[in-house]
Amino acid sequence: MPEMPEVQGLVAFLSERATGRAVTRTSVGTIAALKTYDPPITALHGQTITGVLRHGKFIDVCLGDELHLIFHLAKAGWMRWYDELSTTLIKPGRSPIALRVSMDDGSGFDLTEAGTKKSLAVYVVRSASDVPGIARLGPDPVDASFTRDVFAGLLADRRTQIKGLLRDQGLIAGIGNAYSDEILHAAKMSPYAPAGSLDAPTIDRLYGAMQSTLREAVQAAAGKPPADLKDAKRRGMQVHARRGEACPVCGDEIRSVFFADRSLEYCPTCQTGGKLLADRRLSRLLK
Predict the structure, then answer these.
(1) Structural domains of the chain, count
(2) For the segment 176-218, what is each residue's pLDDT rounded down to a tens digit?
(3) Which of 75, 106, 222, 244 has the highest Cβ tally under 10 A?
(4) 131 and 155 share one domain
(5) Interatomic CA distance for residues 97 and 110, integer angstroms
(6) Would residue 198 count as lying in a domain?
(7) Contact by Cβ (8 Å): 275, 285
(8) pTM as predicted
(9) What radius of gyration, in Å, describes the C-alpha atoms of the chain?
(10) CA 56 → CA 5, 17, 25, 222, distances in Å?
(11) Are residues 15 and 58 in the same domain?
């Protein structure tokens, strides 16, 4: 799933390539992906792109005076840019392309989604806050206003496990499964640690790990075209999706805990005092 650093990379790329260009055509390939009907998507035609913004994991293409094309790539979605966009008609339901956006210089982009579970979402709205997922977002962790004290306030008295708290978009916007693994590894913390039980030095360490991990990932994504962002993300991972490999810090074997639709990865030596974590469904450390 694209997370905040990769989404920021897409925003920077799209902003550079598309700002000032007029949308000439939109083609919907997956009807279920379009979550709004007023304004209609045809309202974008003839509108000039004035900028591109990020809200958590949402990409916001601003057009004209009041229109926004907003999309969330979900678990298996991606954006593909073309300097010369294909003119082949999209057949709804028979293509991985959920949406195609054509511009006045012949360039454009496709939003695609792999797999059978379709979660990619597209919105055409007059205000970004009209998108429910944006309206409920917590603060952005790389914003200057997201201080250590703000972070500590989010943790206070919460019984939630720290892994789940980092992934909760209503508390902190933009962090998903991969970067929460990376942050916790950098902070040398168990993903099962109760958020409200952390003492001040641990909060300091976790906040520092969050800032350094995310900012380094944003920097690594900067300037890369969409086709290169996924590989850049994989290369930067220390533990996530590296089950069975050696931890780059201590050399211990990286382990996984499996859930219904995802897994988490961690290093026992670095994060859990050498103990192996039980499956989350058991909710306990193996003795």
Answers:
(1) 2
(2) 999 999 999 999 999 999 999 999 999 999 999 999 999 999 9
(3) 75
(4) no
(5) 6
(6) yes
(7) yes
(8) 0.93
(9) 20
(10) 10, 21, 27, 17
(11) yes
